[in-house]
Amino acid sequence: MAQLRAFAEGSRQAGRRLGLVPTMGALHAGHLQLVAAAAAACDDVVASIFVNPTQFNNADDLRLYPRLPEQDTALLAGAGCTALFMPGVEEVYPQPTVLRFDFGPLERVMEGAHRPGHFNGVATVVSKLFHMARPHAAYFGQKDFQQVAIVRQLIADLSFDLELVVAPTIREADGLAMSSRNRRLSPEARAVAPLIYQVLQTAAQQVRQGVPPAQVQAQALAALAAEPQFTPEYVEVADAQTLQPLAGYEAGRAVVLCVAAHLGGVRLIDNVVVE
């Protein structure tokens, strides 16, 4: 932690623009896109790798989360990363935290509703990283759409002096959103995983046609449930700003379609924004 603070302070004193890319490791092309975007806009880029225990509400998910520090380090070295922060749990949490974040309606839906305490853990570790690195810009991916909304609110409420940069979701050739958890999919599960994106694409087309949100949601859930390997958790048709479920559409307001489903013991999420 002291080394990160010293590096960040030295960068700032030298008048250099500092970008931060927080990750939990097991890096893929989506992460590397964030690093490349930061490198293109900043003089120094700090990437963090930390599997944050406070944002997991499933002990098995935490235990099984992929950890590939050597491979990740090599990838970052070739992607424009200037410094890597890879702390242990004791360094980030020298004592249990008692502070609790409450993001109101933003976290009462979707991930927040199905993963109690998740966004408190996210906000805690992101706040710590922002305080330690003091970046000029922080880079996140759109695949975690609700997380981005939470971080945006965190920055506004705590007056962090930084720019939030959100990069588009990077997908495999068959449409599956890139995710560290994809590494845990069996070949059989991986073969049907693109159904999530196919369902989202169909739902997006229905939204453009004005199909009522409740009908879009029901049909998407049914399409996922029709594949025996999938156990859908939620499909939401929501306002892209407030994340609240929609009863109807309003001209000029973007709609976000969000999905979470279990596939072969692996929980996957994805989303599509309809302007």
Task: Name the features.
Rossmann fold, 2 domains, 275 residues, five-stranded parallel sheet, globular, alpha/beta, Pantoate--beta-alanine Ligase, Chain: A,domain 2, three-stranded antiparallel sheet, 40% helix
Percent of residues in helices: 40-55%
In the CATH hierarchy, the architecture of the largest domain is 3-Layer(aba) Sandwich
Mean pLDDT: 97
Gyration radius over CA = 19 Å
CATH topology value of the largest domain: Rossmann fold
Largest sheet: 5 strands, parallel
Which structural class do the helices and strands define? alpha/beta
Uncertain parts: none
* Count of individual helical segments: 11
Amino-to-carboxy terminus distance: 41 Å
Widest beta sheet: strand line-up: 3-2-1-4-5
Q: Number of DSSP strands? A: 8
CATH-defined superfamily of the largest domain: HUPs
Percent of residues in beta strands:
15-25%
CATH C-level category of the largest domain:
Alpha Beta
Number of domains: 2
Q: Which assembly state applies to the chains in this document?
A: single chain
Order of helices and strands: HEHEHHEHHHEHEHHHEEE
> So what's the overall shape?
globular
